Structures are given as structure tokens and as C-alpha cells.
């Protein structure tokens, strides 16, 4: 007769130790709850999403990461700059000029190092981290999540909890199980990237800038991100079909895109490639709800927007912080209903929608330079959006003047939860193709 699986109890189970999982677990531990975090991978592990934006400062400060970031070797980032399809560079958007506070300086991070720091910080705050440990399933009694079944060191056991947090990233464990995913009707991009040693680097205040370089055909863009190990992260983002349908290997497509983009080609001229080529399907999606009875989603497990403007880590941190407080409040009140645990999501979604609109406007031809020239009084508000100040209704003032620049025939941008056009999308999201050769 097979022995019953071992059963233990805790206050909260967190699935995944990325930025969202580390943040929510740290907030919960700081509020006096017992937290068990299960991460399937051993760290350090490779991840993309290297450029932070300034509003991450406030979450870092709350969870005890700020001093660690200040003492790190990560490149300091003070601005973002845009290069149009003709190679014309915008004036840099300096964050400090808009908000003269130390929060206006952020970092370019190597995610393997950064994610390890975040998870170690959670441990220091009292989170019980299990690694590597694979969550096999979330356990439900009726509609309520009551724990997880986990496999670690060859043993399978159940961990019962008052709340379960899905921070499983692009695995989207609960979103898949509960069939909650809503594809974005228009954002359907892919990316190919690699790392260069000896590529051009700005100096002084501009040394750590993220540069966004539009492709000559205006269908896509390159990111150009300096890293503290001497490499430059350079990737191209474009409609999925344009990158991956019938064009050959990732190396071939990447090199063709570089050849077509002089602003990138001259920056990496004479540089040596430091890694293989990476690629990902950046399907954009969001769950139709953030929480249910006994469960919450945060970070990429809840939704993925787009790499433009580097909002991913901020949204993971912010959702983790907000969900952590909602869970702690709910447990204290004896109410772990979906309504209580997801009370934060309405305002959060409004912030994501603001960033999404800025992303969609860029893909639809929006020019920062032309807009600021016509409306110089809105330069600071544009910068507010770029730094991640997304959760304040005051920034909505910008949309009317932006719409006044539309050319005749431009259509309204569909909302994220509109029904998508007839495209075939499987359930794989942001599938990462690792390169041959040495990983970073």
C-alpha cells in the first residue's frame, strides 16, 4: 500500500522566485506571515529583461533592496533616448531633470545577478526558500485554492496554505489551468538578441542610457543596453511573422536586421560577439482576473506587456507589493476571497493600460520628437510615463493632445481585452530559444 504524501501547513505559498515572487514573499514575511517559496531552478539562471525604470526605487526601498542596488556593480541609468527610422537621435529624456530626486536614477542589470540578489533578500527577511523545487499542481477544494503539491529531492508532498501566489512567470501555471488568458489583439511581437563586447558606449551622464532605435521600415526597433560586465545587450523586436516565418536561422535574421539599420551597425562595428543568439516569442497577454478564492497572480504569471519602455520588472515588483498587502490584510481579516485578494488589480490594470497605450502609439508611428516640439509643456508628463509613474490619473491629461496629432484615417487602438483578430496562437507564451555556445 502506497504511503500518503507528507502534508505540511503554512500561511502563504509562493510559486516562483523571480522579481514578482521575491517581492510578494518579502512583503508578506515583513508583515509577520510564514511564507514558503518554491523555485524550480537553481540560481543564478539566465533571464532577459535587463533595463529597469526609476519607479522601481520605491519597491526596492520598502523591501530592503535599495542599499544593495546602490552598492552593486550594475550600470547606473539616468535616461532613455530614441533614434528614429532615419537615424536621427532625440534629445535624451533625463529622469532627474523631470523629478530631481535620487529615485530618478535606476540601473541596467544582468538578470542572473539581480534575480539572485532579490531571492537572497527574501531569505534574509525570513522567507523559507526551496530551490530547486517543482510545484506539480495547485490544490483546490471546490473553487478555492488550498495549497500545492510539490516535488523536491525526490520526495512529493503537499503544502497547505491560506493563500497561494502564482509567480511562476511565463509558465503561467494558474492562468493555463483556469483558462484565464486574454491575448492582446494587436501586440504580437518577437525578439532576437545577442551580446557584444567592445561595442560603442556613451560616456558621462549618457553612459548607462537605454537607446531605442527604430528600424528603417518602422515595423520594429532595436534595444541597446550597456551592462557592467563590459558587454552590450542588442536585440531587435518586430512583428512575429516578420522575424520567424521563412527567414532562416536566428543568426541570419539578426544579421540581416542589423545590416538594414545603420544606426545599430555603426554602434557595433568592430565589436566581438560575446554569446550565441537568443530568441523569444513576445506574445502579449493578460489574465482576465488577478485573483480568486485563496489565490493571486503576480508578474508575468498575470500578464506580459511588451519589452518597449522596459516596464516588465516594475510591473512584477508593483504587482508583488500590492498583492502582498492584499493577502496580509485578507488573512488578518479572515477573508481570502478573490474580491479581497484582488482588490488592487483595478488600479494596477489602469497603470498597465497607460503603458500599453504608449507602446501601441509608438508602433503606430508616434514620434516623441514631433510631439514635444508641438507640446513642449508635456515633456515632463511623457517622462513621467517613461519612468513608470503609471498609477496616477493625472497623467491621463496627455492623451487628448496626443490624439490631436493623429493623421486622418488613424483608428482607435483596441483595448487589451477586445477580441483578437483571427490569428493562431498556441498556449506557449514567450517561449525562449536558448543559443548554442556559452551562456552568460
Automatic annotation (TrEMBL):
<dbReference type="InterPro" id="IPR002938">
    <property type="entry name" value="FAD-bd"/>
</dbReference>
<protein>
    <recommendedName>
        <fullName>FAD-binding domain-containing protein</fullName>
    </recommendedName>
</protein>
<dbReference type="GO" id="GO:0071949">
    <property type="term" value="F:FAD binding"/>
</dbReference>
<dbReference type="InterPro" id="IPR036188">
    <property type="entry name" value="FAD/NAD-bd_sf"/>
</dbReference>
<dbReference type="InterPro" id="IPR050816">
    <property type="entry name" value="Flavin-dep_Halogenase_NPB"/>
</dbReference>
<dbReference type="Pfam" id="PF01494">
    <property type="entry name" value="FAD_binding_3"/>
</dbReference>
<feature type="domain" description="FAD-binding">
    <location>
        <begin position="9"/>
        <end position="182"/>
    </location>
</feature>
Amino acid at each position: 500500500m502506497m504511503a500518503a504524501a507528507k502534508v505540511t501547513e503554512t500561511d502563504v505559498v509562493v510559486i516562483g522566485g523571480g522579481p514578482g515572487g521575491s517581492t510578494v514573499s518579502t512583503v508578506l514575511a515583513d508583515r509577520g506571515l510564514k511564507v514558503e517559496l518554491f523555485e524550480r531552478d537553481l540560481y543564478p539562471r539566465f533571464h532577459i529583461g535587463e533595463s529597469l525604470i526609476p519607479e522601481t526605487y520605491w519597491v526596492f526601498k520598502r523591501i530592503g533592496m535599495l542599499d544593495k542596488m546602490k552598492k552593486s556593480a550594475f550600470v547606473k541609468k539616468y535616461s532613455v533616448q530614441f533614434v528614429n527610422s532615419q537615424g536621427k537621435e532625440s534629445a535624451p529624456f533625463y529622469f532627474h531633470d523631470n523629478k530631481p530626486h535620487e529615485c530618478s536614477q535606476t540601473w541596467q542589470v544582468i538578470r542572473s545577478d539581480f534575480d539572485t540578489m532579490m531571492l537572497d533578500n527574501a531569505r534574509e527577511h525570513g522567507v523559507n526558500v526551496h530551490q530547486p523545487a517543482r510545484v506539480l499542481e495547485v490544490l483546490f477544494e471546490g473553487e478555492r485554492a488550498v495549497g500545492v503539491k510539490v516535488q523536491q529531492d525526490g520526495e512529493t508532498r503537499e503544502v497547505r496554505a491560506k493563500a497561494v501566489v502564482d509567480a511562476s512567470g511565463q509558465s503561467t501555471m494558474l492562468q493555463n489551468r483556469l483558462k484565464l488568458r486574454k491575448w492582446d489583439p494587436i501586440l504580437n511581437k518577437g525578439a532576437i538578441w545577442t551580446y557584444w563586447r567592445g561595442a560603442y558606449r556613451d560616456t558621462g551622464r549618457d553612459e548607462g542610457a537605454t537607446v531605442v532605435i527604430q528600424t528603417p521600415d518602422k515595423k520594429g526597433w532595436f534595444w541597446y543596453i550597456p551592462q557592467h560586465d563590459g558587454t552590450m545587450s542588442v536585440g531587435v523586436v518586430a512583428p512575429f511573422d516578420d522575424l520567424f516565418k521563412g527567414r532562416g536561422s536566428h543568426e541570419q535574421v539578426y544579421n540581416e536586421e542589423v545590416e538594414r539599420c545603420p544606426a545599430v551597425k555603426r554602434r557595433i562595428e568592430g565589436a566581438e560577439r560575446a554569446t550565441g543568439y537568443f530568441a523569444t516569442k513576445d506574445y502579449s497577454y493578460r489574465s482576465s482576473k488577478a485573483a480568486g478564492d485563496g489565490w493571486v497572480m503576480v508578474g508575468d504569471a498575470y500578464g506580459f506587456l511588451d519589452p518597449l519602455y522596459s516596464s516588465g520588472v516594475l510591473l512584477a515588483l508593483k504587482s508583488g507589493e500590492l498583492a502582498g498587502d492584499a493577502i496580509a490584510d485578507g488573512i488578518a481579516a479572515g477573508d481570502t476571497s478573490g474580491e479581497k485578494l484582488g482588490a488592487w488589480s483595478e488600479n494596477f490594470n489602469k497603470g498597465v493600460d497607460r503603458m500599453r497605450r504608449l507602446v501601441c502609439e509608438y508602433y503606430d508611428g508616434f514620434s516623441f520628437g514631433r510631439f514635444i516640439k508641438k507640446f513642449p509643456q508635456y515633456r515632463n508628463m511623457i517622462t513621467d510615463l517613461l519612468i513608470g509613474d503609471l498609477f496616477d490619473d493625472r497623467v491621463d491629461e496627455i492623451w487628448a493632445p496626443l490624439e490631436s496629432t493623429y493623421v486622418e484615417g488613424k483608428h482607435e487602438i483596441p483595448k487589451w481585452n477586445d477580441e483578437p483578430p483571427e490569428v493562431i496562437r498556441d498556449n506557449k507564451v514567450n517561449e525562449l530559444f536558448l543559443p548554442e555556445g556559452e551562456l552568460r
